[in-house]
Specification:
This protein is mainly α and 304 residues long. It has a single domain, classed as Up-down Bundle (Rhopdopsin 7-helix transmembrane proteins), CATH 1.20.1070.10. The chain is built from eleven helices and three strands. The chain has helices spanning 18-48, 55-70, 75-84, 91-124, 129-132, 135-160, 178-184, 190-224, 230-255, 265-286, 289-303, and strands spanning 8-11, 88-90, 170-171. The longest helix is centred in the C-terminal third of the chain and has 35 residues, at 190-224.
């Protein structure tokens, strides 16, 4: 196969058993029907309610948007392949999946860092918060988050696009990612695997440790302070830590082990690319009283 001649890959899916694949798709559709409208409601609520005009909620709306997009990258193709009977994906389609997975994943990591910076200023320098985290400032942070994700992703695509493919074309998964594609290349990929490990694996670990340390310091600061709003600030930090674990632990598992198959790869990938992204904003909302009240207020206004 030659990557320039409409290469096709065969996606083996989540399971070789057709019944199990149907079950996964049904569960996925049920999950989307329940959770996806909830995330859209979060975005609409934050945009419509003037009381949720602080940067923290603006970041949350972007997080919900990123997660909606992220969780829609791989499932449509998986469902289409199941019901059509065709399990192939073109080389360009493969690169498209890979691009958006890393674009949105990288952007979300950058956004979580921006949210940590926002909480740092709010907790450690509350008197300067309004002058530091201005509207232009948080717009810059959001744009930089998206741009950082794009740069991270385009590096992956540029490195993979020239690879020659002339042998097996089976991807033992339900989507395309660097860990599967590189193994099929008809060339020595040791150097490329090392570069990908640094670009995806080490960067992810570094951000994970940095965020945990940051929120650990903030929690200590909150616990030892005598200021009002102590409970609210502590709850926000704990919520961010929960989201960080949900976001980073599967990514670290996927991109920080050698490029070989392991028993839990498919399940971890399914949770990481489909389930967990939709849960992040929901977890944040369920732990935030202001957002819950605003959502009920919006629903009541539209139901009248």
């Amino acid at each position: 196969m030659d990557s320039g001649n409409h290469t096709e890959f065969f996606l083996q899916g989540l399971s070789e058993t057709w019944e199990l694949q149907v079950l996964f798709c049904v569960l996925l559709l049920i999950f989307y029907v329940i959770i996806l409208p909830g995330n859209i409601l979060i975005i609409v609520t934050i945009l419509k309610d003037p009381q949720l005009g602080s940067p923290m909620f603006f970041f949350l709306a972007n997080l919900a948007l990123m997660d909606i997009c992220y969780s829609c990258v791989t499932p449509p193709k998986m469902i289409a392949n199941l019901f059509s009977g065709y399990k192939t994906i073109s080389f360009k389609g493969c690169l498209t999946q890979l691009f958006f997975i890393h674009f949105l994943g990288g952007a979300e990591i950058n956004l979580l860092i921006s949210m940590a910076l926002d909480r740092y200023v709010a907790i450690c320098h509350p008197l300067h918060y309004v002058t530091v985290i201005t509207k232009p400032a948080f717009w810059v942070l959001v744009v930089v988050s998206w741009a950082g994700g794009f740069i991270h992703s385009i590096i992956q695509v540029i490195l993979i696009f020239p690879l020659p493919f002339c042998g097996p074309n089976k991807l033992d998964n339900f989507f395309c990612d660097i860990t599967q594609i590189i193994r099929l290349a008809c060339t020595n990929t040791y150097t490329l695997e090392f570069v990908m490990f640094i670009n995806s694996g080490l960067v992810t670990i570094g951000c994970f440790i940095l965020l945990l340390i940051s929120y650990g310091v903030l929690l200590i600061k909150v616990r030892t302070s005598a200021s009002q709003g102590k409970s609210k600030a502590s709850s926000t930090c704990i919520t961010h830590i929960i989201i960080i674990f949900i976001m980073f632990v599967p990514a670290i598992y996927i991109y920080c082990h050698p490029f070989h198959d392991f028993p839990f790869d498919k399940m971890v990938a399914f949770l990481h690319t489909v389930v967990f992204p939709l849960m992040n904003p929901m977890i944040y909302t369920l732990r935030n009283k202001e957002v819950k009240v605003a959502m009920w207020r919006l629903l009541k206004n539209y139901s009248i």
